[in-house]
Amino acid sequence: MIENRPFLAFLTHLVLIIGVVIVVFPVYLAFVASTHGSGDFMRGLVPLLPGPHLLENYGFMLNEGISTAGAPPLSIMLLNSLVMAISIAVGKIAISILSAYAIVFFKFPFRLLAFWIIFITLMLPVEVRIIPTFKVVADLGMLNSYPGLIIPLIASATATFLFRQFFLTVPDELMEAARVDGAGPMKFFRDILLPLSRTNIAALFVILFIYGWVQYLWPLLVTTDSRYYTVVMGIKRLAATADAEPQWNFVMAAVILAMLPPVLVVILMQRLFVKGLVETEK
Amino acid sequence: MKKLALLLSTGVIAALAHAPNVAAQTEIAWWHAMDAELGKKLEEIANGFNESQSEFKVVPSYKGTYPETLTAAIAAFRANEQPAIVQVFEVGTGTMMAAKGAVYPVYQLMADNGEPWDPAGFLAPVTGYYSDTDGNILSMPFNSSTPIMYYNKDVFEAAGLDRETPPKTWAELEAMSRQIMESGAAPCGFTSGWITWVQTENLSAIHDQPYGTLENGFGGLGTEFTFNGPVQVKHWDNLKKWADEGLFEYGGPVGGGDAPPKFYAQECAIYMNSSASRAGVINNSKEFEVGFAPLPYYDDVTTDPKNSIIGGATLWALNGKDPEVYKGVAQFFTYLSQPEVQASWHQFTGYLPITNAAYELGQEQNYYADNPGSDIAIQQITRGTPTANSKGVRFGNLTQARTVVDEEFEAMLAGTKTAQEALDAAVERGNQILRDFEAANQ
Amino acid sequence: MQAKRTIFPNKILPYMLLVPQLAVTLIFFIWPALQALKSSFEREDPFGFHTTFVWFENYRRLFIDPNYVGSLSKTAVFAFSVTVLSMTLALVLAVAVNRVLRTNRLYTTLLVWPYAVAPVVVGILWWFMFNPTIGIAPYLLRAAGVDWNHRIDGTDAMILVIIAASWKQISYNFLFFVAGLQSVPQSLIEAAAIDGAGPFKRFWTIVFPLLSPTTFFLLIVNMNYAMFDTFGLIDATTQGGPAQATNILVYKVYTDGFIGLNIGSSSAQSVVLMIIVIALTAIQFRYVERRVQY
User: Fold this and answer.
1) DSSP per residue over chain C, as a string?
2) A neighbours by CB contacts (3+ pairs under 8 Å)
3) What is the predicted ipTM?
4) Interchain pair B400, C242: CB under 8 A
């Protein structure tokens, strides 16, 4: 601080506290709702303090779910989300690091074309090609399957660019030394490049895990079998039913459970998260 | 990385292990749109069938609202992932009937599999609505309903009204709603689910007003909407006036998801919706007593209100499955039409008893005498002689046309259009949708 | 394009390395995009039994449809409002966090996690707060004498989705502004302080201009977010209503195509959207080239 102004310091904290309240309040309300009984949402104002039904509601959602609202037990959906998020993150990193390696360390015909094809994925978010992509996945027999949930989402221009950017900073001497030692390209990749990329991979993993976890439209399209529902899409089903019949306690228990894993990742791995976010978006 | 791979594979294995054992049984997928109480009862029926034999297993899955279920099934059909049975609401009937290659007509399905089939056993309005031009029933009647009026007897009494006398006409309803509000018994008079179905389509039928040309669309694809007539305009105009005054509260588009909580929370004293809301209403009104009544009518338009029209859904068998599956579907349909199954479904849910036998069974069981109000729907849908305007509406792409009606209704409530302008616009936009359907199905 | 000066001589290997990425891209991105382009010139029945080539009919119908033109302008209003609201709040918070020393980490942690909340979940959270029967927002608004009804009033509904969408995006913008603020040279600020410039003047004359690359970058990213990533949020709240007041382009593509089963029109809308994304991406990448030097 350059000068000491108590009022300004007070204002600063006030701004931050208001900001935190704005950010936290909707989730606090959801948490409170998830600790009450169904009857508490019939009339008047939503409860503002936690109630006594926490374990009961969460236990019910995790173990039983509401099949009449098209929601299987949350434990299944959470597991599906976990499989999907981890696989997407691993898949994206794997294919991106390989492509970046090819583009940076080799010269070959159509190199530029390959780069542009990868680049184009940035311009075609799933939302703009919903129906034909659904058809492709259907024709390949990948509806209602983990590959169908995962593979179409693992192309990644941003991850490829990130690795490319990083590889360009790797000193040429490293590679020359490796070649003098008689190391082939795959050995160089495995023994030198991969270890060097560790932090980048970890940072990227955090971001991509969140990306995979929050996917909504894609699982909505490719799953009709509740065994493959992810938690984020399953929740919508629950919420739609809650409109007509107030079961907000169960919906909100599901909301909290669906938020928890990625939010914990952000909080516990904040440094990696910030690095991943700020660098991938360059 | 290794740990990750391990995590992944255990996840996959665990998920696979969860998949039900499908050893010898033929699975029959049944997509439906019944949530909450209705969904539970539907699952009970499927279980009942599964326990009655060991060859087939009907697997119901909830696919969201009616429109969502229909579109999910069509998308799945295009992807060759369709279920054997899909529940399609009456609005989708036109679309399904036009899709000749996609559906396995139920009369044919039953004949092919040697199951008994007697169209005359169904209630007349049901057969009337679901038959094609040749008089064949194409889909299996399952849950047919018609809108009725629910009212809060305790609030009526608190407002100084007679708890046993619900309003008969819209004029009475208006006066009672006002008395309820002014007395402070409840903050709102009435609310309604399905503005399209209850306040527009049924309103037209009850007052013998045409909804579209060519017998409300029964006559062919060249039909046009005509629901911007004086009676409909008058009613929408009133709804807008009442909404501004607070007598009427809007429950949202499509089925009107905000409407039931308003009634359950005793915010609105009267609630119009499908007779099948009965189960939910009874379950959620433990703090007050509910009364049942037919929908009101305008006594300055007609003194002889016609029958209300059918809603709810039927079960369509979709093409493209193994013969073995259809054998199971046929057996399941036979199971469904048993009077005991039908009567229990009808009595629990408030849907109409779709067969005469189920209705008679209910009478034998003294069900209607023991449960006052439970036969309001049947009486209302069978009253008088049906006219061309009251046998139902059947249009292609009616789901989309209803979205347009909802939108124009909202525009009117927001004050950007008058009732006449809103209905004119809905008719014009709706006709465009009908022309698209006609063009796509030629 | 840049590559290493020294490279491996292999001829086949680079192609092998590229195969997975290119295969996924071609099968799940480029081929479907071409299919969308093709269907945008066709009319098809819902079940896919008949298809007719209709030239530009779908496009012509789109641009004379007041609902589509309305959707374009609503999308613009939505994207602009979300961008401005969330960036403004984020900037204020970032500046504040940059001033505190000891509690800096704690505040940051408490502010960044909404990034990880799925848009559809954000929608549910806010829809619950605005529930007409039990929600806290209508309760407070009623108490304040505001006539709030997002079920009927399109403006109210738009405000609701703008607030919800901005809420989620604050965390993202906040992190980038904090990173931007940290790279502002302390010496410049101290020099200005010695010249007698107060904290607000210093911010407007020195800090804010230096943040402009970050601001510009965030503008583009936020527009992109508001236009494409908010599908789930709209789906969980207004579903485009009332009377299409919040029917932004990306939601309309879905409802017309997947719910309305009007595949021709939906494909034409997809093509229009693709053109918009391509434009946004082009702007973003022109800018990134410059950012590398900075």
Assistant:
1) ----SS-B--SSHHHHHHHHHHHHHIIIIIHHHHHHHHHTTEEE-TTSS-EEE-TTHHHHHHHH-HHHHHHHHHHHHHHHHHHHHHHHHHHHHHHHHHH-STTHHHHHHHHHGGGGS-HHHHHHHHHHHT-TTT-HHHHHHHHTT----TTT-HHHHHHHHHHHHHHHHHHHHHHHHHHHHHTS-HHHHHHHHHTT--HHHHIIIIIHHHTHHHHHHHHHHHHHIIIIITHHHHHHTTTT-STTTT--HHHHHHIIIIIS--HHHHHHHHHHHHHHHHHHHHHHHHHHHHHHH-
2) B, C
3) 0.90
4) no
Q: Give CATH for domain A79-232+261-280.
A: 1.10.3720.10
Q: Assess whether the region B22-145+311-365 and the region B147-308+387-440 belong to the same CATH fold.
A: yes
Is B407 close to C244, i.e. CB distance below 8 A?
Answer: yes
Q: Which of C151, C259, C260 sits opposite B252 (nearest CB)?
A: C151
Which of A129, A164, A233, A265 is the mutation pick for testing C, counting most C CBs within 10 A? A129
Average pLDDT, chain B: 89
**Contact call for residues B268 and B262 (beta carbons, < 8 A):** yes
Helix C13-25 vs helix A74-105: crossing angle, to nearest 10: 140
Q: Write out residues 94-133 of A within 8 Å (CB-CB) of B.
A: none
At which residue do the structure tokens 């693992």 appear?
Answer: A154
Residues shown for chain C: 294
Domains of chain C, earliest start first: 60-293 (1.10.3720.10)
Domain locations in chain B as residue ranges: 22-145+311-365, 147-308+387-440
The domain defined by B22-145+311-365 folds into D-Maltodextrin-Binding Protein; domain 2 (3.40.190)
pLDDT at A30: 92
- Give every CB contact of residue B317 below 8 A, 6+ residues apart in sequence: B84, B85, B103, B104, B106, B109, B139, B140, B326, B329
Domain ranges within chain A, ordered by starting residue: 79-232+261-280
Pair of tokens at residue C247: 């029917």
Residue C132, chain B, CB below 8 Å: the answer is: yes
Q: How far is C126 from chain A (nearest CA, A)?
A: 7
Task: Determine the distance in angstroms separating the CA of A176 from the nearest CA of chain B, rounded to an integer.
Answer: 28
Helix (H) or strand (E) holding B402: helix B398-413
The yes/no answer on whether domain B147-308+387-440 falls in CATH 3.40.190.10 is yes
Rg of chain A taking only CA atoms, in angstroms: 24
Question: Backbone phi, then psi, for B384, in 5-degree steps?
Answer: 65, -170
pLDDT tens for each residue of B90-102: 888 888 888 888 9
How far lies C10's CA from each of A97, A108, C231, in Å? Answer: 18, 9, 45
Structure confidence by residue, pLDDT tens digits, C11-60: 899 999 999 999 999 999 999 999 999 999 998 888 888 888 999 999 99
Give the H or E element holding residue B321.
none
Averaged pLDDT, A62-75: 77
> How far is the alpha carbon of B100 from chain C, nearest alpha carbon, in Å?
10
What's A34's DSSP letter? T
Task: Show which subunits contact B, needing at least 3 CB pairs below 8 angstroms.
Answer: A, C
| pLDDT tens readout for residues B312-367 | 899 999 999 999 999 999 999 999 999 999 999 999 888 998 899 999 999 999 99
> pLDDT by residue (tens digit) across A234-243?
887 777 665 5
